[in-house]
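Check these lines:
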Amino acid sequence: MRRIQQLPALVVNQIAAGEVIERPASVVKELLENAVDAGSRRIEVEIEQGGIDLIRVVDDGCGIVAEDLPLAFASHATSKLTSADDLFHIETLGFRGEALASIGGVAQVTLQSRPPEETYGAQITCHGGQLGEVRPWNGSSGTRVEVRHLFYNTPVRRKFLRTPATEMGHISEVFTRLALAHARSTFERDGARSCRATGLHLTLRHNHKTVYDLPASMALLERIAVLFGPDVSKQLYAIQAHQGPATLTGYIADPACERGTSRMQYLFVNGRWVRDRTLGHAVQEAYRGLLMTGRYAVAFLFLDLPPDQVDVNVHPTKAEVRFRDSPALHHLVFSTIRQRLRTENLTARLQLPSTIKPTETLGTPSPTAASFDSAPWALAPPPASEHGPALPFASPQPPTQSVPGEITPQPAPLPQLTAAHPPTKIIQLYDAYLVVETEEGMLVIDQHALHERILFEQIKRRMQSGPLETQPLLVPEPIELTAEQAARTLEHREALAELGLGIEDFGGGTILLTSYPALLGRRSPQEILRAVVDHLISREQPPSREVLFNDLMSLMACHSAVRAGERLTPEQMTALVEQRHLADDTHHCPHGRPTAVLFSRHELERQFRRV
């Protein structure tokens, strides 16, 4: 039987390196954070072969005195903490004193440093955990760290590294996060302008070629343009809000700028990039109905709050945090983004090869004599009051407190239907699209998507006063399902009843449809219920109540709306276009597809070479 024994310091450091140092990008992250904590104003990063051969980080920070150089490679030795209480008031990026010890255990490291007040500096080496002697060094003030031959003494770890190009991609991502967190930016609070970050001069070179050179004077939006391109930066909207001691600033992107993953959602807490489900969920919920399923918003968000309101000591790489009041922060992020999106005209514009400068949007559609009720599939008008009790699905998490200083914005104006060309001049293409002349240009509307959005918001308005009005069936309709489908559907009987779908268990996998929403009488109730059942079964986990309501309302609206392939009369087309201004968001259907595309008059004239 093996006896318990104390592990050697070298093995301990190699184990720690396995938790903290996964690849060259991990080394760059730790060294960059140390440089920031040292008060640097300029940081240069030099990489060779994706960081496998060389990582060099040079800063102009406070430096390290010669006597402390050996301690820099000692485990749990740091200048950033003095007691356990400091763990709850962390204002630095690093604090554990493990980075250099972990790196020195798996690489050949040279550390050179000189404090500004010293005439000469000093240097020390650490190869595979073995410290060299402290020697004099005649260099500029600040610190210079060289890491060579990463994982040279752990061949198994080195074997798992990818190609230099792949590793450089990970390093670029680490550099990007730090560049965003330390770009020059300001915000206003209580009438006073404050500086969130003063800006760092950051340089990244790979194999002696400059990848990025970002001056300290470069503002956040300018850095985003350099790092992600003008196609992203030109589609961003600035946000700013406060709630208690928390301040939220940053940029969110137009829904048209969506991505297939959440990698373009950059979330920072007190200048630290984090992965946080609470904040990420708030972002996605704010874009609900504006993005297709499986698509993600682009956002650059900076949350600043007192250090004692967040615990960063919950993850080896400090990439995850724990908030003292997560619901309040969720509401702050959700409500700020949602309200900001409502102030923008999100109507899609036709993208042609040359860049077209959009004109200003005009007023809301002019009223016409035509009535939406002339269409046989029309809905009743919305209730007189739109300020009923809060819906269970109106916000992912009901606010516990208001956001001070916020002004509720009004929805963005829509392209105006001019008096010279009234909305009755509408044509239908392919029995699917409506073409309307506006003062801005030619508006092409997806008839199904627009009608679906109108129905969706009609249902929401009606439910503000309670369950939807139902139409009982004289003879209940049996719906044949599997036993599993029937059981899963009956679990949500109460929620379906609030939406006007009455069901009963008939036994043997059969359920009875006893009623359906009166305002959705156009489609077969059985068709709508089967779509609801399919949706409930497709979910691996039971949805929350608010998500369930939003999903079911979207399904009911989708299956009740006029469809592509249905020919409309002129009265129906006019009625549908007239109702466009009644919806809070007419730019997207509940599933995130655009309802209309604007072909600007300027672009039309340019194509015919009139301008």
Residues 164-181 form the longest helix (18 residues). The two ends are 89 Å apart (CA to CA).
